[in-house]
Specification:
Length: about 70
């Protein structure tokens, strides 16, 4: 359960990093293609982090149910 809580914490941190990084990208980048590519990459990384949280939530549910 401790690891599940840690994963949820990392996911929340990932959300904050994503917002800050995308904001910085739009502030500093001049080339629209560059912005589109990197924004998509950052969003894909965030999606992967979200999926890790989903797995942690499922595992947490299993542990709670059978403990």
């Amino acid at each position: 359960l401790e690891r599940c809580i840690e994963i949820n914490s990392h996911e929340n941190e990932g959300d904050q990093v994503l917002r800050a990084t995308i904001a910085k990208l739009f502030e500093e980048a001049k080339d629209p293609i560059y912005v589109i590519k990197w924004k998509e990459l950052y969003e894909n990384i965030e999606t992967a982090i979200d999926r890790c949280e989903d797995v942690a939530n499922i595992l947490e549910g299993i542990v709670l149910k059978y403990s």
